[in-house]
Structure formats: structure tokens, C-alpha cells
Amino acid sequence: MEHSSEYIGLLVTFLLAVGIAGLILFLNSILGPKNKMTAAKAEPFECGMPLTVNPTGHFSIKFYLIAMLFILFDVEIIWFFPWALVLRELRWVGIFEMFAFVFVLGLGYVYAWKKGALEWER
């Protein structure tokens, strides 16, 4: 029973958060404006411009490929920051490992380039 007293603060915070959220939703349903949905409100809204053409819903596969390559290389480059923070402790082993990492990353970039993944138009 000794350990349960540690969680009382967490339980009170959780109950307080749920209570405030419930109170806000309840007051909004009672006091908030009651606007009906119209056809104009149901249309998509983009930067204040009215919809002129119906969207086709299709993007070029190149768009997705470029996006995935960006995310892949961006996530890999994030590893430079923690490496730089501990570089003094890693000494030459850390420098060698980072050059190996950059080499493998560069190989992936060259492979994507040679396969034409970075060319938008063909």
C-alpha cells in the first residue's frame, strides 16, 4: 500500500485533465453557436481560393520516391549531431566509423542517382 501513494498525484492530474476537457466540451455544446452545414461549408477550402477543378487524386510516383529518399537521407544525416557531441571520446575509431557511415550513405545516394530516382522528368 506504500507504493500506491506515489500515484495519487498522477491520478488527480489525470482526473483534473479529463474533467476540464469534459467541462469544455459540455459548455461548448450548450453555449456554442448552432450553425447548420451548408453546401458552401462542405466544400474544400484551400488558401482562400475557391475550388476551380476537381482534384484527380493521383500524384506521380516520382513524387513519392523523392519524398521517401528525402526522409531516408534526412534521418540518416541526423546521426551526425550525436556523433559530433561524443567525438573527443570516440577518438580515431569514431572518425573512422563516421567515414564508413558517410561512405555507405554516399553509395546509396550514387545508386539512387544512377537509377534515375532523382530525375523528375524523363
Explain how this protein is built.
There is one protein chain. The protein is mostly helical and 122 residues long. The protein has two domains: 3-34; 61-114, Methane Monooxygenase Hydroxylase, Chain G, domain 1 (Up-down Bundle). 65% of the residues lie in helices and 0% in strands. It has five helices and no strands. It has helices at residues 8-31, 39-42, 61-77, 80-85, 87-114. The chain is flat.
What's the shape?
flat
Largest sheet: none
> Cα-atom Rg, whole angstroms?
27 Å
SS-based class? mainly alpha
Oligomer: single chain
**Low-confidence segments:** none
Report the sheet-strand fraction: under 5%
Query: Under the CATH scheme, which class of the largest domain?
Result: Mainly Alpha
Chain-averaged pLDDT: 83
- CATH topology of the largest domain, which one? Methane Monooxygenase Hydroxylase, Chain G, domain 1
Sequence of secondary-structure elements: HHHHH
Looking at CATH, the homologous superfamily of the largest domain is NADH:ubiquinone/plastoquinone oxidoreductase, chain 3
Distance between the termini: 70 Å
CATH architecture of the largest domain: Up-down Bundle
